[in-house]
Amino acid sequence: MGSDHSPFLDAEKAKGLEDIFLAPAGLPGLEPMLPLMLDAVNQGRLSLPAVARLMSERAAELFGLPEKGRVEPGADADLTLVDMNAEWTFDSGRSFSKAGGNMRAYDGRRLKGRVVSTFVRGELVFHEGEITASPGHGRFLRPVSVKEPAMG
After folding, report:
1. Backbone phi, then psi, for 145, in 5-degree steps?
2. Whether 78 is catalytic
3. Structure confidence by residue, pLDDT tens digits, 44-102
4. 136 lies in a domain?
5. What domain count does the chain have?
6. 152, pLDDT greater than 60
7. Cβ atoms 29, 7 nearer than 8 A
8. Number of helices and strands (H, E) in the chain?
9. pLDDT for 98-146, tens place per residue?
10. d(CA 126, CA 130)
11. Which candidate in 4, 10, 91, 107 is catalytic?
C-alpha cells in the first residue's frame, strides 16, 4: 500500500496549463488514503484486518521500522481509532496539507468510515478533526534493515 504525496501548491501545478511537462507530477494523497481505504471496507472491497496489515504492519516491515506497525509490548503505541459508520463528504478546504487545493479530485466524494483519533507513541495527536499535538512531536526514524518485497 502506498500513496503519492506530492504537496505542490496550486501555482506550481498551474505551470502545466500551457505546457503539461512544466507541472510537477503527482498530487497530495497521504491525507485521503485511510478514509478511502475505510470506504472500500464498507463497500466490501477490502477487510479491515487487510487495511491494518497493509497500512501499518507491512509498511513497517518494508521500511525496516521494528518499533512500528504492531500492537504489542516493545512497540510504539501508534494507534488510529476509526468510526466505520460515520458518513461524510470530503472537503479539500479542510485539509492539513499546504497543497489541499490539489486534492480537489476528492471534493464532494461521499465516504463511509472516518478517522476519529490518532495516537503516536501513546500521545493523542489528532482528535475529531483537529491536530492536538505540539509542533515537533514527530521524530526521524532510521530503518534497521529494509526487507525486499515478496514477488508474486
Report:
1. -160, 145
2. no
3. 999 999 999 999 999 899 889 999 999 999 899 999 999 999 999 999 888 887 777 77
4. no
5. 1
6. no
7. no
8. 4, 4
9. 777 777 888 899 999 999 999 999 999 999 999 999 998 888 988 987 5
10. 6
11. 4
